[in-house]
């Protein structure tokens, strides 16, 4: 009977165990997380086996430790039960031994096992089964009981089966979790890559910093929570931090905030700028910096604070900061790396913006004085004229055109550096007299303009003139030179929306030239007489090209003769314009206009061609070799094209070498003497000589003689006029200088026998003037070459 009862009991237990296993196997399909798994094993599986104490550990194979993940204890404390040791080394206790060997153990009396480590409730027996998947120990299920010999082979068998099923499920969950993490990481990486590309693209295309910052924040917010975010720029020169972009609680304030010098030193941002190190701080770390005196609390304290410094130039640096006031939102090293990348993009964007601003400033401002240039002045005049539609009827604008008196003389006698410093000082003085709404501009050289907007009474202009006069009244000490500044001023008004900026500039310019012609420091207002002159000027400008194209220009020739024998050695070619409507137009009426408009280049080339054609005709007619001097603008000496053009003329007419001589006036200043020298040397194979006209009337001549390969000097008529009874000391000095430099000398404007006689007693080589011949036509000129004049 006893046997039958035992067999029946064993069958009942076996059936119950199979039921547990079947139910566990079925439940595994519904369980998706490790926490759910471990809770099910401890509360539904092990508990049904009648165990009173069970702990599940997972292995950390890198640290060789077992970490408690679930437990089941005595009934009244079951929900809160935790084993005393939550972490066990592989080398510790029975549990550690099972994890090391990977073999299950059943111990009937743990007091006799030296490996046993007692918990807060010492046990008598222990069943410990490893969790193994593909020969790798994943963890351990450890069960203890207060009765010796409690655990049987049947318990070992079913717990081993449970451990096997649990190991497989643990591996499955880990695989799924790892796969999900991998997918999430790939998605995050793709999201990060796309965002970084967006930021880089935004940096390249950004034209406006405010728009750039707003778009940048939107991208950053997709990568990390940035509900509280700001970008600040620090200007070392003024020692002020400018919060150029601020978002608080997700709302953009759209206003710049400046932190004053007094507040700046107390901020975490300033500390960041000084240390030039990224700061990633939680609440405690932030407070620790405050306690150390690194900075003070400004505003409310954040739970997490991340700031990255950046540098754009030697003068400008900045910070980008995100703050969290949510305990659940803590920034990490990944966020720090992201923000560091963003800071570099901000730096690049600001660099590009500053570079663009600098280029725009250079394009619209004079490099020497920093004043507006002609382009910017014209734009402001245009806009001001358009605004007249909204202005009162009595409103007008005034343009003051200034030309500094004697500036060229100062520049030539004292050097360009002194001249530049002189200009800068004058500009600083005048700048202090103009209104904040006025535009002070440099138009070029020593010519400046002041555009006065919204003039309601002409006394406003008179007051401005008085302020300028007062500012320039005292001598200026410029590089140890005491110089007196004064300016000739022309003034023109505009009060009509149909007026043009360039015409206003022409009118003021014309008035300035009238002022300059009446003496130093004079002021002239544009009037009808000047308007007629401008009209004539415009007509001539329009007719010049037509005249070139229709052969309206003719060359007259004045003989150049030897002083001693009056033998003709060549001619100076002088232009005459036979206008079809105006008749004869004197050179003084159109040459300055051609020079101003740049038409002088085409006119000179046309006249050179006419001269070459005449030389060729004379040679074909069998006349002896003659040189012809042609006046050319100094503008030609600013381009190497002039060399090719002269060579082309020589080839076109097969001229004898040395037939053409080029004459420039001393007043026609050549800016680039080095380039001019290359041009003259480029003409040397043709034996073209350079003649300097009007020598002695200006201050550039000695500089020219020193730096340019000049061959001939012309003594100006004003010196020859004063030859009476004896030689003029200045003439003697010029001749002496020429002799020492081995230069030929031509005295021009000889009108009396007395002048010729005096020159014959000097070392002067050649002469020309009305005494011997006025300029004549080519037919008349050739008749003068066969006998002395």
From TrEMBL:
Residues 537-789 form the EAL domain. Pfam families: EAL, GAF, GAF_2, GGDEF. Residues 395-528 form the GGDEF domain. InterPro entries: Cyclic-di-GMP_PDE-like, EAL_dom, EAL_sf, GAF, GAF-like_dom_sf, GGDEF_dom, Nucleotide_cyclase, Rev_trsase/Diguanyl_cyclase. Transmembrane segments: none annotated. This is GGDEF domain-containing protein. It comes from Pseudoalteromonas arctica. The lineage of its organism: Bacteria, Pseudomonadati, Pseudomonadota, Gammaproteobacteria, Alteromonadales.
């Amino acid at each position: 009977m006893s046997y039958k009862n035992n067999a029946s009991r064993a069958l009942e237990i076996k059936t119950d165990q199979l039921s547990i296993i079947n139910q566990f196997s079925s439940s595994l399909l519904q369980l998706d997380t490790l926490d759910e798994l471990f809770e099910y094993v401890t509360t539904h599986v092990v508990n049904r086996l009648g165990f009173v104490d069970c702990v599940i550990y997972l292995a950390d194979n890198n640290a060789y430790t077992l970490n408690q993940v679930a437990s089941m204890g005595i009934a009244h404390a079951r929900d809160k039960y935790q084993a005393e040791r939550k972490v066990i080394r592989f080398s510790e206790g029975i549990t550690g031994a099972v994890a090391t060997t990977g073999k299950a153990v059943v111990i009937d009396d743990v007091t006799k096992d030296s490996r046993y480590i007692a918990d807060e409730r010492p046990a008598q027996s222990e069943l410990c089964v490893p969790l193994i998947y593909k020969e790798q120990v994943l963890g351990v299920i450890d069960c203890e009981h207060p009765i010796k010999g409690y655990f049987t082979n049947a318990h070992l068998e079913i717990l081993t089966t449970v451990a096997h099923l649990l190991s497989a499920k643990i591996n499955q969950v880990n695989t799924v979790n790892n796969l999900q993490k991998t997918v999430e990481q790939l998605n995050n990486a793709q999201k990060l890559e796309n965002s970084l590309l967006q930021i880089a693209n935004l940096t390249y295309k950004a034209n406006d910093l405010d728009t750039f910052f707003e778009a940048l924040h939107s991208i950053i917010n997709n990568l990390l929570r940035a509900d509280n975010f700001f970008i600040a720029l620090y200007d070392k020169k003024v020692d002020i931090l400018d919060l150029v972009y601020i978002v608080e609680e997700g709302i953009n304030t759209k206003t710049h905030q400046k932190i004053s010098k007094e507040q700046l030193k107390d901020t975490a941002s300033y500390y960041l700028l000084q240390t030039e190190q990224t700061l990633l701080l939680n609440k405690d770390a932030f407070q620790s910096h405050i306690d150390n005196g690194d900075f003070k609390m400004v505003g409310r304290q954040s739970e997490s604070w991340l700031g990255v410094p950046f540098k754009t130039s030697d003068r400008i640096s900045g910070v980008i900061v995100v703050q969290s006031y949510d305990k659940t939102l803590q920034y990490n090293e990944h966020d720090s790396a992201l923000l560091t990348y963003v800071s570099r993009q901000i730096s690049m964007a600001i660099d590009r913006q500053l570079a663009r601003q600098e280029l725009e400033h250079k394009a619209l401002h004079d490099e020497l004085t920093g004043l507006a240039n002609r382009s910017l002045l014209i734009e402001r005049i245009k806009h001001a004229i358009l605004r007249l539609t909204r202005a009162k009827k009595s409103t007008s604008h005034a343009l003051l055109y200034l030309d500094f008196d004697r500036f060229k003389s100062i520049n030539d006698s004292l050097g360009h550096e002194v001249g530049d410093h002189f200009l800068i000082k004058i500009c600083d003085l005048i700048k202090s007299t103009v209104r904040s709404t006025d535009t002070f501009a440099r138009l070029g050289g020593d010519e400046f303009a002041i555009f006065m907007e919204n003039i309601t009474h002409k006394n406003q202009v008179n007051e401005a003139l008085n302020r300028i006069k007062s500012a320039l009244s005292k001598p200026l000490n410029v590089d140890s030179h005491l110089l007196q500044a004064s300016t000739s001023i022309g003034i023109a008004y505009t009060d009509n929306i149909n007026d043009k900026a360039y015409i206003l500039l022409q009118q003021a310019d014309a008035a300035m030239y009238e002022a300059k012609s009446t003496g130093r420091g004079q002021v002239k207002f544009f009037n009808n007489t000047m308007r007629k002159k401008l009209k004539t000027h415009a007509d001539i400008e329009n007719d010049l090209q037509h005249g070139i194209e229709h052969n309206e220009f003719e060359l007259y020739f004045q003989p150049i003769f030897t002083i001693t024998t009056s033998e003709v050695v060549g001619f100076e070619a002088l232009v005459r314009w036979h206008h079809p409507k105006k008749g004869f137009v004197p050179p003084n009426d159109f040459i300055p206009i051609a020079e101003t408009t740049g038409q002088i280049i085409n006119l000179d080339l046309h006249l050179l061609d006419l001269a070459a054609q005449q030389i060729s005709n004379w040679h074909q007619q069998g006349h002896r070799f003659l040189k012809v001097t042609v006046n050319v603008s100094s503008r030609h000496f600013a381009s190497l094209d002039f060399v090719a053009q002269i060579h082309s003329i020589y080839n076109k007419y097969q001229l004898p070498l040395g037939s053409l001589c080029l004459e420039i006036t001393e007043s026609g200043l050549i800016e680039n003497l080095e380039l001019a020298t290359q041009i003259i040397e480029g003409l040397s194979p043709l034996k073209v000589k350079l003649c300097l006209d009007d020598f002695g009337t200006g201050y550039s001549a000695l500089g020219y003689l020193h730096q340019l390969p000049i061959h001939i000097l012309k003594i100006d008529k004003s010196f020859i006029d004063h030859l009476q009874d004896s030689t003029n000391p200045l003439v003697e000095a010029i001749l002496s200088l020429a002799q020492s430099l081995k230069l030929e000398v031509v005295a021009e404007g000889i009108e009396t026998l007395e002048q010729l006689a005096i020159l014959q007693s000097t070392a002067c080589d050649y002469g020309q003037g009305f005494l011997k011949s006025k300029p004549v036509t080519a037919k008349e000129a050739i008749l003068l070459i066969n006998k002395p004049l």
